[in-house]
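Hi Prof. W.,

I finally got the Biotin carboxylase prediction working! I wasn't sure whether to trim anything, so I left the full sequence exactly as given:
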Amino acid sequence: MRIVIRHADQPHWTSWNIALTGINAKPDNPGPGCAVARCLRQAEGFRGRIIGLAYGTLDAGLYLRESCDSGHLLPYPATGAAALLERLDEILQHDPVDALLPCLDAELPNFIAVEDELKRRGIRLVLPQRAQLRRRDKDSLPALCAAAGVATPDVQCLVDERFFDHCGGDGWDYPLLVKGVFYDAHVVYSASEARQRYRQLVATWGYPVLVQKFVLGEEVNLTALGDGSGAMIGEVMMKKQALTDKGKAWAGVTIDDPDLHAAGRRLFDALKWRGPLEIEMLRDQAGTLQLIEINPRFPAWIYLAHGVGRNLPAALLALMNGVKPSQLNLALPCPGTSFIRHAQETIVALDEIATLAMSGSTACPHVLASRAA
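And this is what came out:
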């Protein structure tokens, strides 16, 4: 098998071939990939190519030329790291890649496992270490928060749905939050509802299922980059204004929240995080910020960061290209800048979907270029 090797004398990142994942666009729970692509397209001087990596033939980014110049299907994360590397080697025969930005939680362990192999192929990545990733898992948050001096609700791992029948006697009063190990969270108000959600999560994500004490409050989020030393780079803070049924932001506004900023700094320092990160917190009725989740990637609302002059995907590529954090040209984020998400149709020829389903790839780059001409 012939593998295209990228060499160390690569050009400036604005002309790189950038591969990214998470290019689905489900209205109630979109992946971050299309928003990351949008940030890169609008980064000053960017003239590179964007290569979409997807897990389903109906992932919208595969067909949105404003998002991706070409696209390829990957094996699902459950197939393991070896299958991922084999597929990426197939892709590299046709689509050279200078940098790769994973945008989904569940795929990160596989990318970490093949990171050294990908770097030997000349592909740049900025990934957390496996231990860092484990420390921000949902069931590990109490220990992390204790080390960082941040509040968080109690959480338990479950492998038996009978917990919900007697949990009130153990101090776990309804409502409760039932969560999948990777994605999905549901507020439940009774044992019967909790068991139903538990079974759904097991069927979708497997064991364990997490149960977390419910906190009533206002949700605020922070996203930033980490360089592995404990620094928090380019932070942008946002308050959700409208939610989907899955609790995802449909609209939000940038804020300046000193408490959220301080909590973010403590968490970045405790984790020594490398790469993008999103911190989700709730301000409870007593005014205390409580950590709900840490997502090891860019959030789906990352385009808001570009909107306030902090294009974090572009900044991450600049860091990969050797720029020091102090040299990044990041504006001070202006509070009061809002975003509103929307859904729209894209027209796709049936033969495009059939080609992707049969070959695992969209049209070759030279075909796409001739179409654009």
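The two ends are 32 Å apart (CA to CA). Does that look reasonable to you?

Thanks,
D.
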